[in-house]
Amino acid sequence: MDDSEGHSRRRFLAAGLAAGGALASAPLAKAASGDPAILEVQPWANELGDGVDASGYGLPSPFEAKVQRRNVPWLTADTTTSINFTPLHALDGIITPNGVCFERHHSGVARVDPADYRLMVHGLVERPLVFTLQDLMRFPRHNKIYFLECTANSGMEVRSAQLNGVQYTHGMVHNVMYTGVLLKDILAEAGVKTEGKWLLAEGADAAAMTRSIPLEKVLDDCMVAFKMNGEALRAENGYPARLVVPGWEGNMWIKWLRRLEVGDKPWHQREETSKYTDLMPDGSARRFTWEMDAKSVITSPSPQAPILHGKGHTVISGLAWSGRGTIPRVDVTLDGGINWHKARIDGPSLDYALHRFYFEFDWDGSPLLLQSRAHDSTGYVQPTKDALRAIRGTGSTYHNNGIQTWAVNGDGEVLNVEVS
Ligand code: CO
């Protein structure tokens, strides 16, 4: 037994005690006797396998074919212009594969020919400019891993527990590595006039998505990205170039970016007045709620990922993120919030990026109420849904970062519930 095993063994026992579980645990694998899967020669060991990928662009194993973006039929009338969700229950680590990043479109997927792609920069600038894609790629490049969360992620869960799967309750988030150039470098080329304080970003899709962004944020860390996870942006993610607004709501990350206008005040476009403002109980609305509040969720076990192995050593896996920095700590409870245990964060801890956490415990087979609670680098702690509702009411589906509860029954099946 090396040090790391000894460490994990101690953690495991401590967690089992804390959860009220058995002291001695069953081994993690069964004894090696009589198993035909190891005693008999399997078909794949008896014949020549497939040749190299004939399609030229590989797909996951056929055994993983169920891992797909999915929509909720009753939520969206059609799939042409609306929403699908990332299969968070089937993923691990922090990087979202490009083919399963959730989609949200306001006028469908624009098919922009990169040869005809142009980015116009105008308004309060010394030199109005038009960039081709090749022009943009001549600025210094940067690689950054960021989450992108739709403001309406978990919006259906504001009033009560609704959707039976983490894919649907939390799947409007993804996390990829962007390659792109800094907006401050592009704007320096155009020369922002001293009265310039805001930037309007507009998309080339038929919705002409437009959002106002304060220049302070633009010049801090906003990017124009043309690659995600090393390859060209997918069409549904804004090919050939999109805006990246780290930590801020996804609606501002304009896809198929075609126009940047510098101004001295916000424009108050549709997407920042009638939409993407948060209605409060007194009838007023919060505007410019840009930063995504710290949030976490257990991705497995969850309704689409039940416990299949029975009682004994069990691994909880989940995600946490904050639009204000990193996640130094995540707590997990097995009993609906009576006792909290510190989870283990594994993998990179980066500003405005998904963090992966784990909690290992010895399950005694009794029902569980699983929750996770994120702490971000500003000291903010993820609230309960009741605490959010006490302040905001239930009139807005935006910015629900409340604690999610999964109920596990004795058979390992998982349901979306609430505890209060
Ligand atoms: Co907002």
Associated small molecules: cobalt (II) ion
Q: Classify the beta-strand content into a percent band.
A: 25-35%
- Write down the secondary-structure element order: HHEEEEHEHEHEEHEEEEEEEEEEEEEHEE
Assign an overall shape: globular
Q: What report would you give on this structure?
A:
This protein has 420 residues and is of the alpha+beta class. It folds into two domains: 8-18 and 292-417, Immunoglobulin-like (Sandwich); 98-286, Oxidoreductase, molybdopterin-binding domain (Sulfite Oxidase, Chain A, domain 2). It has helices spanning 3-18, 36-39, 133-136, 166-170, 183-190, 215-221, 385-392, and strands at residues 83-84, 103-104, 119-123, 129-131, 141-149, 173-182, 198-203, 210-214, 223-228, 231-232, 242-244, 257-263, 278-279, 285-286, 295-300, 312-321, 329-333, 340-342, 344-346, 355-363, 368-375, 405-408, 414-417. The protein has a five-stranded mixed beta sheet with strand order 4-3-12-7-8. Strands 5, 6, 9, 10 and 11 form a five-stranded antiparallel beta sheet that branches. Helix 5 (183-190) crosses helix 6. The relative contact order is 0.15. The model is unreliable at 1-23 (pLDDT under 50). The chain binds cobalt (II) ion. Residues 151, 249, 276, 289, 398-399 line the site of cobalt (II) ion. Cobalt (II) ion binds at residues 151, 249, 276, 289, 398-399.
In short, what is this structure?
With 420 residues, the protein is an alpha+beta fold. It is 12% helix and 28% strand. The chain contains 7 helices and 23 strands.
